[in-house]
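If you are new to this repository, start here. Below is one unmodified record pulled from the training split, so you can see the exact layout before writing a loader.
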Amino acid sequence: MEALSAKEQKKRSQDIDKMLRNEKKKMAKQTTLLMLGSGQSGKSTFCKQMKILHMFGFSEREKQNYKAIIHTNIIDSTLDLIHAAHQHSFNFSDSNVDALGHKLYDAYRVKKSVAMEEIEVANMHVKTYAIDESLAAEIQEIWNDAATDSIIKQAKELAVLDSIPYYLKKLDEIVSSRYEPNNVDILLARLRTTAVSETTFEHAGVNFNIIDVGGQKGERSKWLPLFSDVTAIIYCVSSSDYDLVLEEDGATNRMIDSFELFKTIAKHRAMRHVPIILFLNKKDLFEKKIQEVDLATCFPEYKGGKNYKAGIKFLEQKFLKAGEEREGEVYVHVTQATDTTNVEVVWQAVKSILLRDALDALGGFGGSV
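And here is the target side for that same chain:
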């Protein structure tokens, strides 16, 4: 290939600079990212991170609302644990804990005699509970029972929230009247998305609009109308869920559901040209789990053993292969949505991908920019 003259190189550089300016102007009008993925994959956590990084964090009212959500997460997880034990005829090792479990479950889930408060957060009306010191002591007693870990391992439909061990360690602080959630507390708070939630902010001269919709099966019918005018899809996968089943049906493997859903989106005619940024999320939990549970329990063809790097590489290649025939590219990032530093690094990469993809779409100059 004939080398360019100095004049031609300067002209090419000027043309590329002009294209970059034009594309940045175009992106500045609005860059719409659609967050998709199964329930509890980390979509909403990523949106919270954008609020921390680019929208001055959470207001006092939002913090108080998340305090109520955290209380409710702890109570709901405790009740789910009790229900799983009863459903499978598992007994807690202490008969007093068994009796306590029956009492709490009867009050909260059967008779529903405990008062709830309704709050509004992320465009949703949510009913919440509150924990006092007496209830906190009872909750700790249940989770500290010698049989609890065994119940969790045997009841595959019981997906204990990733945040529960963290919250239990600071439960005395959480139930205090002076408690104000910090960023980590809020990032770990679980709020099931049942409405379309939009996070809009400006960063580096670009206006971003991130649309988050519920990932549970019952919420996916809301996705299709959002497919138009999308700049890119961010698809979240909970990499550590390969040995768990969906809470919706108690039977379908979560990772298989996520993988099949990804294939459907990647091949959808309205989305074939749209770039997909794939987040293999919860890498910290995956690294811990694969040391105990082989990925082959979900994918028999996996032969890498209980090895973190082999497992991540396998998942990356499997998802990439599922999207290899589409027009739009698939870009993979291994993420931990609860880690603000990791998300900040990933977000810089996402912005570069969006700009590069926009330039590639122009069919311009080739090569990297």
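Two things worth knowing about this chain: The chain is about 45% helix and 15% strand. The beta strands are 31-37, 117-121, 124-128, 197-203, 206-212, 232-238, 276-281, 330-334.
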